Amino acid sequence: MRRDAATEERSEAGHRVVPEPMCNLDFPLGKPGENLCKDTATVTTVSHHITESAEECKKAAMYLDSVNKTGQDVYVGVDWENAYPTGCFRRVKSDGTVDFMLNGKDGDEPNGNRPALAPAASSAFCAGKASCLDGTRVCQRPKYINGTANGNGGCPDSDADDGYQVIMDSATCILAADCLGIDRANVNPGIDYMIGLKNASKKLDHPVGCFITWETDPPVNYMNPKDDDYTAMGGDPSSAGPFVGTPLCIAKNPDIQSSSDGE
């Protein structure tokens, strides 16, 4: 991997990854002090991939910590390539400030060794270790993903803190649809984006939350707000369906350190 913002994205197995639009990237952190994304044993559905381009690394800095605090060139020097994880990485320095930088090392995995006379690694997890990768790899995965077609929920790894959940607010639903290039229903005359405004019983025909009708040409985005009073309508949308539409899920990212719209 060399220092080129146009570097082709590849999985850790070396397979080419189709690039996502920048608005559809989530940046989970990898394993501290190691040259790895999240342990694949705990990623059941959606793979995490290395972040390699300078543009994406700067995006990750804004997404995870709001400000890229490096104040220097985004790439580490060649003499330091063995000291850090390859690709984009996050490093918390001894004074508490945060760096997001890129390591463009080619060939062998970095071994954790630092240049002669260099100061000790600043990350707490490197304390007392003769060699340690001083930082945490910044990985990536899709921010938005489909749930169960014509059903409720079905978001990947929904029970995990860093899995996916159905989008339940309208503002996020609109952002997601715009990112994916999906028209909202109210763009078309006579079709309501918000389900149930004119006929409450229609809420029982669709998944709860943000959803897309992929079967239509073109696909259309709708919002079916959660409502606790479904009994008067004779049904319960928490059931399995079948419904018309596929829920749209968003990544949960516990690594985000401060408020950010992620866009």
Quick take:
With 263 residues, the chain is mostly beta strands. The chain contains two helices and twelve strands; from the N terminus they run E-E-H-E-E-E-E-E-E-H-E-E-E-E.
Overview of this protein structure:
Helices cover 9% and strands 17% of the residues. It has 263 residues and is mainly β. It folds into 2 domains: 22-141, no CATH class; 143-251, no CATH class. The strands form 3 sheets. Strands 7, 8, 9, 10, 11 and 12 form a 6-stranded mixed beta sheet that branches. The chain has a 3-stranded antiparallel beta sheet with strand order 1-6-2, with no helix packed on it. The longest helix has 12 residues, at 54-65. The model is unreliable at 2-18, 231-235 and 259-263 (pLDDT under 50).
Sheet-strand content, in percent, reads: 15-25%
Q: Gyration radius, to the nearest Å? A: 22 Å
Q: What's the story with the biggest beta sheet?
A: 6 strands, mixed
| Gap from first CA to last CA | 27 Å
Structural class: mainly beta
Oligomer: single chain
